[in-house]
Amino acid sequence: MTYLSDMGYVHRDLAARNILVDDNLVCKVSDFGMSRVLEDDSESAYTATGGKIPIRWTAPEAIAYGKFSSASDVWSYAIVMWEVMSYGERPYWEMSNQDVILSIEEGYRLPAPIGCPVTLHQLMLHCWQKEYSQRPSFSNVLSFLDKLIINPSSMITLVNDALSFPDSPEEMPDYPLFISIGDWLDSIKMSQYKSNFLAAGYTTLDSIATMSIEDIKRIGVCLIGHQRRIISSIQSLRLQLHHIHQSGFQV
């Protein structure tokens, strides 16, 4: 994909189903039926109208405005990473395409598959930034993955550097550090569930960071939209707490 991007190609349909694997386990990108060439500038974008779009693999700006670029391919590449790490799960599971679109707009991102290294999931999240200009380039991604391949033990030590790509204009968003569960729920306009969390024994931010979607349902959050908003915020909180603990601070 680094090669294709450097050559000015936008694939538009990156997905595990379009990756061929030969006898030597070499993976090759295939199916260029939707691809286009950016002849003037490989860093630019083009606007498409009409036609079907693979919603679950497509960046939000491409869905909303038909704006495709190498950055939208980077978004799709991270979905492929998630497919591989989840051993072929369907992205967003049984959610409808419309629910996927709304969830992404609200800030929801796919959680880390079971057993997925934190470093790789942070890379996915960086590729899924809403602003396409803030996503890493394919050359950034390639350089980072090369480091992991050469030195797999760095999978842990590189956690704090997972989002430090040379050409990236911004680091991971600086999420506010909430003093209490009430403050956190207030910030995402879900304060009506304070008693639900406390009654279920979730009294610290660290305990909240371990919650899954099933835990959210179990404490009485029944509305799907509210479940999505809370679990998305928990993902952000989890990353923030991880960085804080790595730095030696206690919450």
UniProtKB/TrEMBL annotation:
InterPro entries (alphabetical): Ephrin_rcpt_TKs (IPR050449), Kinase-like_dom_sf (IPR011009), Prot_kinase_dom (IPR000719), SAM (IPR001660), SAM/pointed_sf (IPR013761), Ser-Thr/Tyr_kinase_cat_dom (IPR001245), Tyr_kinase_AS (IPR008266), Tyr_kinase_cat_dom (IPR020635)
SUPFAM superfamilies: Protein kinase-like (PK-like), SAM/Pointed domain
Stretches of the chain forming a coiled coil according to its record: none
Top-level taxon of the source organism: Eukaryota
Limits of the Protein kinase domain: 1-149
Keyword Flavoprotein (UniProt): no
Location of this chain's protein in the cell: Membrane
Topology of the protein relative to the lipid bilayer: Single-pass membrane protein
Main location: membrane
Domain SAM per the UniProt entry, residue ranges: 180-240
Name recorded for this polypeptide: Ephrin type-A receptor 6
Organism: Ilyodon furcidens (goldbreast splitfin)
